[in-house]
């Protein structure tokens, strides 16, 4: 019996789904292994675990890491995270978030690879799909916790694939859900709308532009200020100029003039920004610059390079994640539209593969082949043994890397932070934590201040429960009514 056309299409593309499945396993293995080794952090895995846990319990999201009963919809507008809540009904914990992120990133490989296979041939599809899946922007995000922008990656891949194939309605439909991922992506939708209009459907393009502008304005000027404890969008200071992150060049002032200065000269300086821009385009041999699809990356590059926070400028963390589908979609589009010869195509593919492989060892996916990744520090078992003493539902203050280990079952916040819930029932601190985990993205106390704070806690009603392997566990002693009465009488 003859195979149906649907079966033929499946058998012709089975290797694409196999590639996506293999990449899913790689992403999940890296992130889950980091979590097992207690190398994840409160910012951001602990925060997002508390957010999705809130949705799963049927109320608006709050994060104790951000502050006592802090409403997260006043921090970033990411209601799409509610889609993860049903998975928490099956398994509640940070591991679920990491697996969901791995799945989202792996799915994004499929439309780009299918596009390259159909227009450039199966070998080209395989090379481009693999290089995209192993790209440094994806690797950096996988190696650093979970982030809401993971939802944007498959949406962008599907939208830009449709846009590159002149399926303009599909491009708009895939782009519009980006408005629920994060407030800045409204500007990305705006640019997609402009490209749709330029490609021929002016009415649909202008509708998409209007939706992007309206959603971004609504989020920034209405929703976020309404939920924010401060009554305004907390990150305006990064745009208007501020002190920046410790150890980096921050803003020199404030206001519009400073923004304009950083938006011109600041876009190409310092060297970190140039390096990020070059590294972004290098896997495509800079051919992506010949495609109008690359304009979609402009809003992300502008807000990052004009930010006063130097961490936004480089290649670390998750900040380059959304750029990867944009760059590789532009690469495919440029290869197709310029009518590259067979020899030229092979040259570009070889260059793309070579640069990806050269870059790969510098980013987290390479950890899978390093022996240290599969060794577990004995202190991890000690930490879990002590954490097991903390009952479910308790209020806890703890070290940065211990937060996501406890956020699934306790009300946990950062130890020593002024924003944390005061007088928690339990305190657990890793006094051997390296200095690299302290500071802006880590614990809010220095090692010396932390020791002083522990001594003060012992004087104000906290009893030492256990001290082992560099971990200190303390419990607040409840004062019995009779004791309070006698103290008052005396």
From TrEMBL:
Source organism of this protein record: Streptomyces mirabilis
Transmembrane segments annotated in the record for this chain: 14-32, 97-116, 123-143, 149-165, 172-198, 204-227, 277-297, 317-336, 348-369
Coiled coil: none
Keyword Transmembrane helix annotated: yes
Keyword hit for Transmembrane: yes
Annotated protein name in UniProt: DUF2079 domain-containing protein
Keywords: Membrane, Transmembrane, Transmembrane helix
One Pfam family in the UniProt entry: DUF2079
Superkingdom of the source species: Bacteria
């Amino acid at each position: 019996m003859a195979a149906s056309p649907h079966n033929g299409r499946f058998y012709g593309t089975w290797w694409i789904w196999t590639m996506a499945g293999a990449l899913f396993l790689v992403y999940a293995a890296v992130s889950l292994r980091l979590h097992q080794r207690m190398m994840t952090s409160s910012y951001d895995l602990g925060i997002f675990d508390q957010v999705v846990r809130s949705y799963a319990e049927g109320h608006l999201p709050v994060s104790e890491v951000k502050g006592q009963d802090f409403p997260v919809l006043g921090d970033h507008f990411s209601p799409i995270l509610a889609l993860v809540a049903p998975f928490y009904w099956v398994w509640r914990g940070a591991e679920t978030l990491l697996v969901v992120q791995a799945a989202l990133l792996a799915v994004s490989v499929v439309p780009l690879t299918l596009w390259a296979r159909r227009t450039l041939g199966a070998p080209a599809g395989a090379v481009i799909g693999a290089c995209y899946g192993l790209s440094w922007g994806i690797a950096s995000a996988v190696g650093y916790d979970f982030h809401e922008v993971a939802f944007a990656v498959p949406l962008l891949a599907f939208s830009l694939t449709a846009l590159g194939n002149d399926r303009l309605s599909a491009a708009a439909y895939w782009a519009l859900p980006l408005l629920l991922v994060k407030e800045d992506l409204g500007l990305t939708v705006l640019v997609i709308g402009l490209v749709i209009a330029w490609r021929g459907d002016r009415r649909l393009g202008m509708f998409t532009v209007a939706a992007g502008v309206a959603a971004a304005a609504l989020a920034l000027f209405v929703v976020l200020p309404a939920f924010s404890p401060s009554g305004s969008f907390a990150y305006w200071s990064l745009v208007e100029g501020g002190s920046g992150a410790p150890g980096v060049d921050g803003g020199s002032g404030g206001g519009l003039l400073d923004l304009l200065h950083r938006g011109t000269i600041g876009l190409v300086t310092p060297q970190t920004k140039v390096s990020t821009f070059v590294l972004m385009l290098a896997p495509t041999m800079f051919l992506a610059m010949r495609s109008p699809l690359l304009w979609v990356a402009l809003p992300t590059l502008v807000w990052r390079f004009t930010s006063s926070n130097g961490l936004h400028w480089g290649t670390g963390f998750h900040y380059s994640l959304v750029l990867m589908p944009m760059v590789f979609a532009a690469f495919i589009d440029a290869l197709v539209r310029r009518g590259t010869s067979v020899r030229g195509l092979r040259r570009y593919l070889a260059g793309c593969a070579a640069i990806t492989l050269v870059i790969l060892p510098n980013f987290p996916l390479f950890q899978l082949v390093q022996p240290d990744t599969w060794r577990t520090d004995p202190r991890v078992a000690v930490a879990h043994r002590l954490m097991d003493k903390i009952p479910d539902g308790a209020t806890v203050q703890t070290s940065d890397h211990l937060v996501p280990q406890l956020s699934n079952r306790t009300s946990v916040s950062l130890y020593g932070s002024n924003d944390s819930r005061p007088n928690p029932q339990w305190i657990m601190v890793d006094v051997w934590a390296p200095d690299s985990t302290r500071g802006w993205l880590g614990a809010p106390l220095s090692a010396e201040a932390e020791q002083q704070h522990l001594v003060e806690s012992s004087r104000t009603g906290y009893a030492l429960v256990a001290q082992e392997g560099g971990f200190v566990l303390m419990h607040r002693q409840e004062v019995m009514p009779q004791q309070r009465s006698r103290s008052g009488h005396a």
